[in-house]
């Protein structure tokens, strides 16, 4: 039995090592993505609060630095556009808002039509069985 266990360990070790490397790579990717998102949220918060708390010169310098980084870095530009698109899509999902009663009525009508189609198909199949 001991030889069998040793053989199983020898065979499964490379698979376990590869699985560990896959998990490690996934962890690193998720950690980097989270760090980028947190950095952009913090930077956006800093830009927003700079209007309220910082002197005008500091605020201009901070915004100028952001504009320069946006102009020179394709990564910064891509991530900025992506984050704003995600932000605006989530806002536009609920705005200008929809009428819940009208949505419920449309769903009920669609369900009724679907049920009618299913019943008509079943009736046609039953008639075909009687004929054939």
Mean pLDDT: 87
Structural class of the secondary elements? mainly alpha
Largest sheet descriptor: none
Quote the beta fraction. under 5%
What pattern of helices and strands is seen along the backbone? HHHH
Shape: flat
> End-to-end span in angstroms?
65 Å
Alpha carbon gyration radius: 30 Å
Helix content: over 70%
Put simply, the count of helices is 4
Number of strands: 0
Query: Which regions have little confidence, pLDDT < 50, spanning 5+ residues?
Result: none
Key phrases:
132 residues, mainly alpha, flat
What can you see in these coordinates?
It is built from four helices and no strands. It is mainly α and 132 residues long.
Task: Give a nutshell description of this structure.
With 132 residues, this protein is mainly α. It has helices spanning 2-53, 56-72, 74-94, 100-131.
Q: What is the strand and helix layout of this fold?
A:
Blueprint (H helix, E strand, L loop, with lengths): L1 H52 L2 H17 L1 H21 L5 H32 L1
Helix pairs in contact: 2-3
């Amino acid at each position: 039995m001991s030889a069998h266990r040793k053989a199983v360990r020898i065979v499964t070790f490379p698979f376990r090592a590869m699985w560990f490397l896959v998990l490690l790579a996934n962890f690193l990717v998720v950690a980097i993505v989270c760090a980028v998102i947190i950095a952009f949220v913090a930077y956006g918060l800093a830009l927003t609060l700079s209007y309220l708390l910082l002197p005008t010169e500091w605020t201009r310098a901070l915004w100028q630095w952001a504009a320069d980084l946006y102009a020179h870095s394709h990564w910064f530009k891509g991530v900025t556009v992506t984050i704003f698109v995600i932000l605006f899509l989530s806002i536009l999902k609920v705005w200008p808002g929809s009428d819940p009663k009208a949505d419920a009525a449309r769903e009920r009508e669609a369900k009724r039509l679907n049920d009618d189609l299913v019943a008509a198909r079943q009736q046609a199949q039953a008639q075909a069985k009687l004929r054939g």
